[in-house]
Amino acid sequence: MTIKTPQGILDESPMSSLQITAITMCVLLNAIDGFDVLSISFASPGIAAAWGIDRAALGIVLSMELFGMAAGSVVLGNVADKYGRRITILGCLTTMALGMYAAAVAQGVTELSIYRLITGVGIGGMLAATNAMTAEYSNARYRATAVMIMAAGYPFGAIVGGAIASELLVTYDWRSVFYFGAIISGAFIPVVWFLLPESISYLSQSHQPGALDRINALLKRMKHDLVTTLPEKTEAVKTSTRELFVGDLRSRTMLLTVAYFSHIMTFYFILKWIPKLVVDMGFHPSEAGGVLVWANVGGLAGSLVTGFLSSRFPVRTLTIVAVAGAVFLVAYFGQGQSDLTELAVMAGAAGFFTNGTIVGLYALFALVFPTRLRAGGTGFVIGVGRGGATLGPIVAGFMFALGYGLDLVAILMAMGSVICFIALVSLRVPREVA
Q: Distance between CA atoms of 144 and 166, rounded to whole angstroms?
């Protein structure tokens, strides 16, 4: 007779209301991530006007939280594997709330950049922890779909938060965007404390005192079968980063990292520069924010469509199709669009495919890495990949400063998604993920 493990029970059982609540919480947390990352984009026209900084310098400011996200993803991803997903999420929320408030009261470019760097550490750790938490609270049938829906929270947060930010900018200055982000991030700390329990998979692997009782209490709330013993404890989590480069995982880790690094460079070129480019065309900052909102509307649609199709088609195949579309749409962005409607349509179309690729990659992370390496593996790929995120706005900023037009810059920045396409085609994964 086979003894069922806690994760095995979750894999085979229908989704309970507690599981759905936990996944919904992760969606909302990723929505906060989405707004906090893009808050600097909504605020950038006002910052540039207030402090008189040029495009090259602005590109560096736009990238500062992305540097922090890289460090947060790698370091806090491993922290989430060692100490727990829930405590890591609470720490990230606290960091984000304090960082957003500090940005609102910053008195100069250097000070603002430091605060955005700190905020980015929390954002990066949050993504690694919620990606793992979502995968582990889902059953096997809907795991890829759940992770993709979680990832869809990112553009959802940018849409809702961006719409509010655009309204704030009509009456108030750029600082109001950061005040709003601080309030929302801080408000979710007690929500997570009371509504988001620790991952059962993490409790099973950690063998903490009382873990079995905590697991059975959660299984009972879900109306699932209980367990009598914990699975055998695996090797210490401290070796997780090294283990990502052992056996079959080595090539998968490397190709996923290359794919994410290169595509995220293209992704953040679009998301970070849209407001400033639209303002430079002669439109009001609130109108520019509206174009960025439409980019995220397209991103949300791309996330949901990809998630829906993931239950019918292989995740890797869907992601390859999405990144191929991203190459074309990003390259075409800026090729003659002159009014707000044309810009919004093109931004929305580009957002559809770029974000569809992102959620596909997140699903691949959750499916390829085993439980004990899931947060650390996801954190490593995202953390290293964030190097591409930081380069995107900076490289574009310097190309603009050198006199390159938007039409040429867009084509060159689309090359990141071309590299992602090649990496995904080369990726060999288990048959059920292909």
A: 33
